[in-house]
């Protein structure tokens, strides 16, 4: 018997919930929206979307669809598109609405605003202009992926989207590969294999988790080392939204022989500086010292 006097096998009753019609305070309200399942939206988010004077969104079509799902009517309210390509033009309209004492609700395409989307400049400018900024917490692909990954969560680093080109991606990986933290990145499903290939050049045994289509029908979590997952990814990549996580780097005690061997394997294919950067990241050594060793090794090889 449960606290409502029902037996364990008694079907649950639907709970009637009413969206508030109380207007939010004037200011910018950053509304987190579902990353997959539309039912992941919070009641407070629905309240603000229902009553804000102005609605702004990275993609107004996505926001309209979300409003339709939850039965929220636009009722003639202004809707402003705010994204990477029009941010400088759209921001003044939002600031003007705030100056007029209105409330503005802003949502990104999915998840928490300002995480890998253009909203951070909006929030900064609104705060600098002296207006209120409020966050409505909710879904986040980065935190959802961290939760199911099984990787350490006491210290983590979100590094956004990797660069598209291989050379830039290698340097980007080097910038964080030695940090003692779980690293979270968003990646194009078509480039996941290339990202793993670049990681294998530095640390093939790095604990790696790929989360695909989180909270959606075909949600999938793949766990293994970077090398193991590389073998599982088809050449054409994956489908759907992808979050990739890398565990803490291996603790290695590198000898000079280790460094020389690693540098020798790379110097035939890349410049000294790039080879030194990769080896320094792989072994957690000071880049300056590894670079000096690489120069010495190159001089020896050049006679």
From TrEMBL:
<dbReference type="Pfam" id="PF23016">
    <property type="entry name" value="RsmI_C"/>
</dbReference>
<dbReference type="InterPro" id="IPR053910">
    <property type="entry name" value="RsmI_HTH"/>
</dbReference>
<comment type="similarity">
    <text>Belongs to the methyltransferase superfamily. RsmI family.</text>
</comment>
<dbReference type="InterPro" id="IPR014777">
    <property type="entry name" value="4pyrrole_Mease_sub1"/>
</dbReference>
<keyword id="KW-0698">rRNA processing</keyword>
<dbReference type="GO" id="GO:0005737">
    <property type="term" value="C:cytoplasm"/>
</dbReference>
<dbReference type="InterPro" id="IPR008189">
    <property type="entry name" value="rRNA_ssu_MeTfrase_I"/>
</dbReference>
<dbReference type="InterPro" id="IPR014776">
    <property type="entry name" value="4pyrrole_Mease_sub2"/>
</dbReference>
<keyword id="KW-0489">Methyltransferase</keyword>
<feature type="domain" description="Tetrapyrrole methylase">
    <location>
        <begin position="28"/>
        <end position="229"/>
    </location>
</feature>
<dbReference type="Pfam" id="PF00590">
    <property type="entry name" value="TP_methylase"/>
</dbReference>
<keyword id="KW-0808">Transferase</keyword>
<feature type="domain" description="RsmI HTH">
    <location>
        <begin position="254"/>
        <end position="298"/>
    </location>
</feature>
<keyword id="KW-0963">Cytoplasm</keyword>
<comment type="function">
    <text>Catalyzes the 2'-O-methylation of the ribose of cytidine 1402 (C1402) in 16S rRNA.</text>
</comment>
<dbReference type="InterPro" id="IPR000878">
    <property type="entry name" value="4pyrrol_Mease"/>
</dbReference>
<keyword id="KW-0949">S-adenosyl-L-methionine</keyword>
<protein>
    <recommendedName>
        <fullName>Ribosomal RNA small subunit methyltransferase I</fullName>
        <ecNumber>2.1.1.198</ecNumber>
    </recommendedName>
</protein>
<dbReference type="InterPro" id="IPR035996">
    <property type="entry name" value="4pyrrol_Methylase_sf"/>
</dbReference>
<dbReference type="GO" id="GO:0070677">
    <property type="term" value="F:rRNA (cytosine-2'-O-)-methyltransferase activity"/>
</dbReference>
